[in-house]
Write a structure and sequence with these properties.
Elements: H1 8-26, H2 32-48, H3 51-55, E1 65-73, E2 78-84, H4 91-105, H5 114-133, H6 137-146, H7 148-158, H8 163-177, H9 179-191, H10 198-202, H11 208-225, H12 234-241, H13 244-269, H14 271-276, H15 278-297, H16 302-321, H17 326-357, H18 373-386, H19 393-408, H20 410-434, H21 442-445, H22 452-470, H23 473-491
Antiparallel strand pairs: 1-2
Length: 496
Amino acid sequence: MMSNYPPYLSLAIWLPILFGAIVLAIGRDSNRGLTRWVTMLGSLVSLAVTIPLVMHFDNAAHGMQFVESTPWIGRFNILYSLGVDGLSLWFVPLTAFIQCVVVVSAWQVIEERVAQYMGSFLILSGLMIGVFCALDGLLFYFFFEATLIPMFIIIGVFGGANRVYASFKFFLYTFFGSLLTLIAIIYLYNKSGGSFSILEWHALKLSMREQIFIFLAFLMAFAVKVPMWPVHTWLPDAHVEAPTGGSVVLAAIMLKLGAYGFLRFSLPIAPDASHYLANFIITLSLIAVIYIGLVALVQKDMKKLVAYSSIAHMGFVTLGFFVFNEMAMQGGIVQMISHGFVSGAMFLSIGVLYDRMHSRQIADYGGVVNRMPKFAAFFVLFSMANAGLPATSGFVGEFMVILGATQFNFWIGLLAATALILGAAYSLWMVKRVVFGPIGNKHVDELTDMNGREFGLFLVLAIAVIAMGLYPAPFTDTMQTSVADLLKHVAISKLP
């Protein structure tokens, strides 16, 4: 059913891509000031058009809202079809918001090839929003794969010393992981009588063998993107070498593309296979939560520590999806949104320190609070949210997943709960050595506290983290109907 509203979703997708093209056309570093302001304008306009989506979303309505559909490649029945429901709604404004954060964080930091840097992020933002909105399987695949190109450029051009290795590893892992997905999409197209409609695929009656093939094909792409253990090894390298903005977008949004794929494809298209393989996914998720949490404990590089903690937190998400419990599934989605704020804030914090000292090694710091008290306050808050402290957004999703997992199986819930202990351990370990104690060396003694731009940026993120931790109802109310519908759909066998 077509929407009566203006094409908000198309605007959210194509406005940042259009502004990205304009920024790239500006090009020369002699126009750095103009480039930054055009990028900021594009980011703010893109964020503004996502606000009506939240304001006009009907929490009680079933199915897709703000639907747009028009023929794209008519000969093959390929549609330019967009829509959002409670599972995808919040990721559209979150992506646009993170784009604004990246622009502000890079305002005075990026001095060379500014147009290429800013343009890549604008285009990437539009493509990621397209992933969350696409209702046509081929359109989804187009957006899903296209996100690799700007991120490849961001890491490969603007990254650290080993940026070429990290960018190729990121690209090859994620690209090859998606090849089976294309085969599955073509199979579903033929099985549905020549339709790429994702919603029509949900109604297909597939045999168990077909469902297992479809599930595993999608798993290859989504597990790499999340990333799940053991296909996670590209992420720490990508984070360490990526510029601060790249790490922020990678952790805050790109990892969510894979988790969202489970909700939109794996679970509704292959419900019987999802139940059949649930214990396999739960096992991989618990390994990510516990083992990767232990790996984070021994990291000496701050970025690597936060990168591994991201893998552990995303393990909570996949765990919440596959215990088939409303509380846990909502908790997994809440964790995805919260992780967008918290992980973005953590990488920005590390970026602030790196801009001043050009080191991410924990051993090179100590006593930062003595020279940067404002920064230290924010860093401690975000680290505690990363550890799942109550009254922060990091607690809400993890607690809901643990509660739902406990209802499913007490021992699974107990194992998942160990993540709270591990999260506190590696977060406090880092905070203690970086922030507190006597001043570690002369470089720390020369540090200057946050400027107004950095303070304003961190304040907005801190408000988001605390507000979501104290009052998560706007998020859970929005997704409740869609989660209930999905679980009801997955509970009904689709075997012919």
